[in-house]
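Wed. Picked up where I left off yesterday with Gamma-glutamyl-hercynylcysteine sulfoxide hydrolase. The coffee machine is broken again, so keeping this brief.
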Amino acid sequence: MCRHIAFVGPEIPLARLLTEPEHCLVRQSWEPRRQRHGTVNADGFGVGWYAEGDPVPARYRRSGPVWGDANFADLARVVRTRAALAAVRDATVFGADGEAAAAPFAAGPWLFSHNGAVRDWPDAAAPLAASLPPAELLSLAASTDSALVWALVQHRLRQGDDLGTALAEPVRELAAAAPGSRLNLLLTDGADIAATAWGDSLWYLSDARAQRTVVASEPYDDDPRWREVPDRTLLTARATRVDLTPLKETSP
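Structure written out below (tokens, as returned):
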């Protein structure tokens, strides 16, 4: 399993989101409070962020634990952004993909993360993998379930689906093909956020007056305004609004 977080709103230093809060993402890498599967997220980390005037996000990713990277605190202290997505990773299956398997995954204006695991990987997901065009399948960033989930989401985005649909349909398809999968997905294009709660915790903090929204695996502080997203739910958000839509399972 993993922990991840996304933010849209007025420009802030990454540190305010990732390193300064009492229960920030860095602390969640070794002491998550609400993680249901796994205990330590030390198999990689990453952050993607948007610079003013540039729709294509930058990324910083590493294959080891975030607490072992002496450069990360400096990066988080000086980089300012209006939108970001970050994650710490607990690998479902150990492999040689290293940094390539660390979220966020990226293409064009999009950043993506998967918190969970596809059950009976890779056999159960093979029919969905086969549905992708060969060029897209050969372009997988890593040989992990998360990379395939991202390929399925990215395929829909490139066909014109909005962020919410691009997450919801692959979740339904994967849940039908591999029952018992955990499919908490997180996606942003720098203006909007979409996320699914499917098998693990998901929370959001929205402040319309401050025009900012944070969506995360778990709260990074004890602010009473945090709200938990019910399981089997699609969340779509802008800086000033959050919508929740129940997700229904489809038959295999």
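Quick read: The chain has one domain: 2-246.
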